User: Which sequence fits this backbone?
């Protein structure tokens, strides 16, 4: 049995005694931001005099960027700019979670703030009503880094019974999955589903359809909720694209894409046009699909375990071994969406949706935001 954190063993009944105390008209607001790694999330909480009705009522704040890999100690104050507000499923109404952009001392975006440029691109192509849906895979680990519920010395049975499986011998950690799902629904995240994945202790949740910048906002906050729920249970959720070497599936973040034209009658032609454009920018996309310029995906995109090769672009109907999959129903109805199966589980959704929008709808050579 994988180890769990000491904090998860604290007396939760005692905690609940305090959590149920009234707080008057005051509102706790938890500010969430992406740190300098481009993968980690940070948060801190402040009190407002009343419940905010809109994001405009949430004040800017600041933090020490030298402790989050975002600044030097001699000039470390960073600005938190609220951009998206959700209900707080941990401290409950009227309290809020607020996703923030991070700006440097000169009020320019930090190097890990990819939302700013993504939002500019999404505003430019608003007329296309571009929808995204992202399938976030993750793996549950103990605090010792060992996969949750895997034998201490050895491996579970080979892959086969775990995908969408049921039963204590097939589904590891379902309590976490269901609590996360409920937390997302309460918060207002556009979560649309979940399932157990091919490797034991690996799960997936789906967010979408979301239009434009909303995709990145909702996925990042859904990730925050996942880490917080796992914290309560004393385990770790990793987004590593290949957490276990060998004959085990990796973890991706398959991205489903459609525009207004693709969803209309005979929209398949626009899907095919988009795929043709994507084929010419394959390696450029690979560099944007994980935080290390493609190095993480090199371990995952091998052509095995339902992946395409990282070096070759491919597309096909109902083909889960292709770079781009056209669902069979879309091929039959000749309209709908396509699925880009290349993004890694630890991708930045702002970068992924931005580069897809640039390649499919804008001129990456001429548009300043796409360069």
Assistant:
């Amino acid at each position: 049995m994988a180890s769990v954190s000491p904090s998860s063993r604290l007396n939760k009944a005692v905690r609940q005694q305090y959590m149920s105390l009234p707080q008057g008209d005051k509102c706790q607001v938890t500010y969430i931001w992406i740190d300098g790694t481009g993968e980690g999330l940070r948060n801190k909480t402040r009190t407002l005099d009343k419940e905010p009705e809109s994001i405009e009522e949430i004040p800017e704040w600041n933090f020490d960027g030298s402790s989050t890999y975002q600044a030097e100690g001699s000039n470390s104050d960073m600005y938190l700019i609220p951009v998206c507000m959700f209900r707080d499923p941990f401290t409950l109404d009227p309290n809020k979670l607020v996703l923030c952009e991070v700006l440097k001392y000169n009020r320019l975006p930090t190097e890990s703030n990819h939302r700013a440029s993504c939002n500019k691109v999404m505003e430019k192509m608003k007329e296309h009503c571009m929808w995204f849906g992202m399938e976030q895979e993750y793996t549950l680990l103990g605090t010792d880094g060992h996969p949750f519920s895997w034998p201490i010395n050895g491996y579970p049975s080979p892959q086969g019974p775990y995908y969408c499986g049921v039963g204590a011998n097939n589904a590891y950690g379902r309590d976490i999955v269901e609590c996360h799902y409920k937390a997302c629904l309460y918060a207002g995240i556009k979560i649309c589903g979940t399932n157990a994945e091919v490797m034991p202790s690996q799960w997936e949740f789906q967010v979408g359809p979301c239009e434009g910048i909303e995709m990145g906002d909702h996925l990042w906050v859904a990730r925050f909720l996942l880490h917080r729920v796992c914290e309560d249970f004393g385990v770790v959720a990793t987004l590593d694209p290949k957490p276990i070497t060998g004959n085990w599936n990796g973890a991706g973040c398959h991205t489903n894409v459609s525009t207004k034209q693709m969803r209309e009658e005979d929209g398949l032609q626009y899907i095919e046009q988009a795929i043709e454009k994507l084929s010419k920018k394959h390696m450029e996309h690979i560099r944007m699909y994980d935080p290390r310029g493609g190095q993480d995906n090199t371990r995952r995109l091998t052509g095995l375990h339902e992946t395409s090769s990282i070096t070759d672009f491919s597309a096909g109907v109902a083909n889960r071994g292709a770079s781009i999959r056209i669902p069979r129903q879309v091929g039959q109805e000749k309209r709908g969406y396509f699925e880009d199966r290349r993004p890694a589980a630890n991708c930045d959704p702002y970068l992924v949706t931005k580069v897809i929008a640039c390649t499919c709808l804008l001129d990456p050579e001429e548009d300043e935001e796409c360069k």
Remarks:
- The longest helix spans residues 214-233.
- The chain has a mean pLDDT of 96.
- The radius of gyration is 21 Å.
- The first strand starts at residue 27 and ends at 34.
